[in-house]
Amino acid sequence: NPLVPSVASDATVQNVHVQIRKQIKAIFGEDSNISRKSYTILRFDQKQWRQAREEYNKKVTARNNDKRHFDQGLVYAIMDKIKGMDHPDMVDLAIALQLSSGGRISEILSYSAFKPDKRNYVIQTGILKSKDRTEIVKPIIHYTVAEFMTMLGVMRGKLSDKLRDIKNGKITHYDLSQDLKSKINRRISKYFGEHTSSHDLRKIYASLAYNTYANKDKQSESAYLSDILGHAEQSLEVSKSYSTVAVVRKDDDAEIVI
């Protein structure tokens, strides 16, 4: 469809093609004629794709050279404020859970399952954007695992109708995250300042987790972040983009207003 490339980025078009082919394969079978034809009809121009990747890599490199700083005291104060609320809404809970676990917003809302592992760690099953990773073990930041699991249960309880709709095929995990994304990002901007989004919360988590839990003598920052964020094992360049945020300790005696 010539309309799609004109209204979407190259990466979006590529992803749409992949998702359509997956659905065709699931419905008609991998060996069906329509599945085989889909690889010819829904084919992305490789020259155009390589150019798009080169442009993306340039942007990543530029971003990596300009770290953004967040105050650790502010991060923890926001997490404590949400934990201390009598009746936090699903937006605040999603923010707190993302800061403590680094999950993608759709993984936090509905897609992933979490269960306690060893002390301060959880096992997350259901990893988006990764074909070869179905499970990751990751540390929980600032909260106990019990607190994290309780808050997750409360948030998903508030989303029970939507989760039922997902189970019954009325909506998708993507639909739910898109429906709440703007609300979540507005609340994040209120807490952390303009131009801060849920993607930045994953970076904040990454910085805190690496500084607190990583064995820096045995594993590089990119490799560690790839492990706990659920990136494909070969996607260390992607993980590098998550090291563009530094969580720093400012004046411990300074009053934090949120």
Short précis:
With 258 residues, the chain is mainly alpha-helical. It has helices spanning 3-7, 10-28, 33-41, 46-64, 72-84, 90-101, 105-111, 145-158, 160-167, 173-192, 198-213, 221-229, 236-240, and strands at 68-71, 113-116, 121-125, 135-139, 245-248. Strand 2 and strand 3 form a beta hairpin.
Describe the structure.
This protein has 258 residues and is mostly helical. The protein contains 13 helices and 5 strands. Helix content is 60%, strand content 9%. The longest helix has 20 residues, at 173-192. The N and C termini lie far apart (48 Å).
Descriptive keywords:
mainly alpha; disordered C terminus; disordered N terminus; three-stranded antiparallel beta sheet; 60% helix; 258 residues; two-stranded parallel ribbon; 13 helices; globular
- Biggest sheet, in brief? 3 strands, antiparallel
Q: Name the structural class.
A: mainly alpha
What string gives the helices and strands in order?
A: HHHHEHHHEEEHHHHHHE
Mean model confidence by pLDDT: 84
Question: Going across the major beta sheet, what is the strand order?
Answer: 2-3-4
- Count of strand segments: 5
* Helical run tally: 13
- Identify the overall geometry: globular
Spans of at least 5 consecutive residues whose pLDDT stays below 50 are 1-8, 253-258
> Into which percent range does the helicity of residues fall?
55-70%
Radius of gyration, Cα only, in angstroms?
20 Å
β-strand amount: 5-15%
* Gap between N and C termini: 48 Å
List the helices and strands and how they pair.
Layout: H1 3-7, H2 10-28, H3 33-41, H4 46-64, E1 68-71, H5 72-84, H6 90-101, H7 105-111, E2 113-116, E3 121-125, E4 135-139, H8 145-158, H9 160-167, H10 173-192, H11 198-213, H12 221-229, H13 236-240, E5 245-248
Parallel strand pairs: 1-5
Antiparallel strand pairs: 2-3, 3-4
